[in-house]
């Protein structure tokens, strides 16, 4: 019986003196055909200048998402990040940064799709590497492309409250962002010479590649129109003058109980019986010399303060309102809490995420940090936290605890 000849490997070809590209071609050349072949989607616009311009725009969007995302991450854990936590003022800072974060991420979706199309032949060029130096570049592309797709898909899913996974979105999104930005820096370093050449004035004046179809200018205009369309139809969820254009936004800033959106209702949080209990009390305890327990009647009898503050959620929507209630710093003073105290705010909600939130010293002592009893002149709706909710300046909505039952000074 004659054994079939052993197929030569890349290693065999390299030892025979062939280049890396020739070795790949010899062993894997049969894989170069099919829907992902290098010439599967030919176009004259697969050129350096198109790729460079789109890369710069996408890089700006990604960098904006990364920096504003860091702010959001730190804002959601104010007692754990020290000096990195968000300040209490200006009051609307988080509303702006998170709105920009979601808008930039949404705009990056068409940019990424067109960018991937522009480099399609490079992604599936054959052989995949021509020399050893290209191996490093190829390796950096994988986390960049895969991580970018994951970040935009998971971010978009989060805005719609659709979670087809079991892992923690916030933790995974945060650490994947570091991977993507690291891969982006490495990719920019590898391509800086080519990018500089493609963006130079001489390249701008050079004639377009021969062929028919859409021109470079037409492609840039179409891409810009797509970015503008998705931005205009979503950014109205936080930019109130554009609310009527927010056709694709998962939230509208003026729709919901008392004209404000909600993410979790009292029924969904399973607190309807607890908040209707006539024996409800608010407790201020922890590291204080005089723990205090107040009934709702006693709480309502305390001096009240009014503040215009926005609820700004990590999903990108925000809505402003006038809140009226008791200052947290006044409640802390009743219990004798020391200056500089930090506070953990507890909801009566027994299960679910974000049952507690932290107030750093700056927020706890701010004059507009309230346990609100009213919004826009009316008693709080159960879905907005009746009988009392936390509302404070420059904080994400997940940190504005509803159905508050306890202030724990730590």
UniProtKB/TrEMBL annotation:
Residues annotated as domain Oxidoreductase molybdopterin-binding: 278-409
Transmembrane segments: 50-72, 92-114, 135-154, 174-194
Pfam families, sorted: Oxidored_molyb
Keyword Plastid: no
Source organism of the structure: Paraconexibacter antarcticus
PANTHER family xref list: BLL0505 PROTEIN, PROTEIN-METHIONINE-SULFOXIDE REDUCTASE
Protein name (record): Molybdopterin-dependent oxidoreductase
Keywords: Membrane, Transmembrane, Transmembrane helix
């Amino acid at each position: 019986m004659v054994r079939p000849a052993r197929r030569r490997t890349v290693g065999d070809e390299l030892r025979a003196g062939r280049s890396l590209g020739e070795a790949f071609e010899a062993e894997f050349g049969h894989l170069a055909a099919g829907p992902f072949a290098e010439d599967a989607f030919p176009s004259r616009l697969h050129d350096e200048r198109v790729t460079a311009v789109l890369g710069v725009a996408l890089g700006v969007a990604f960098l904006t998402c990364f920096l504003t995302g860091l702010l959001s991450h730190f804002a959601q854990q104010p007692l754990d990040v020290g000096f990195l936590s968000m300040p209490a003022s200006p009051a609307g800072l988080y509303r702006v940064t998170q709105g920009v974060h979601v808008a930039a991420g949404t705009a990056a979706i068409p940019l990424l799709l067109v960018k991937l199309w522009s480099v399609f032949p490079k992604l599936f060029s054959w052989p995949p590497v021509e020399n050893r130096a290209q191996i490093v570049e190829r390796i950096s592309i994988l986390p960049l492309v895969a991580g970018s797709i994951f970040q935009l898909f998971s971010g978009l899913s989060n805005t719609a409250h659709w979670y087809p996974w079991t892992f923690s979105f916030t933790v995974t999104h945060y650490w994947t962002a570091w991977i993507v930005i690291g891969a982006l820096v490495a990719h920019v370093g590898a391509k800086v010479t080519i990018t500089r050449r493609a963006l130079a004035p001489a390249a701008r004046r050079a004639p377009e590649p021969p062929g028919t179809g859409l021109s470079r200018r037409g492609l840039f205009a179409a891409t810009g129109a797509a970015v503008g369309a998705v931005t205009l139809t979503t950014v109205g969820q936080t930019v109130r003058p554009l609310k009527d254009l927010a056709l694709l936004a998962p939230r509208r800033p003026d729709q919901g109980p008392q004209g404000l959106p909600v993410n979790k209702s009292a029924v969904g949080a399973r607190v309807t019986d607890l908040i209707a209990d006539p024996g409800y009390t608010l407790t201020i305890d922890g590291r204080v010399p005089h723990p205090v327990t107040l009934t709702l009647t006693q709480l309502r009898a305390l001096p009240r303060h009014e503040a215009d503050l926005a609820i700004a959620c990590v999903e990108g929507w925000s809505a402003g309102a006038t809140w009226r209630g008791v200052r947290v710093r006044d409640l802390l003073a009743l219990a004798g809490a020391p200056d500089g105290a930090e506070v953990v705010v507890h909801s009566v909600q027994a299960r679910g995420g974000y049952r507690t939130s932290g107030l750093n010293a700056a927020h706890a002592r701010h004059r507009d940090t309230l346990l609100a009893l009213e919004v826009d002149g009316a008693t709080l709706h159960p879905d907005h936290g009746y009988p009392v909710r936390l509302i404070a300046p420059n904080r994400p909505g997940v940190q504005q605890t509803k159905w508050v039952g306890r202030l724990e000074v730590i």
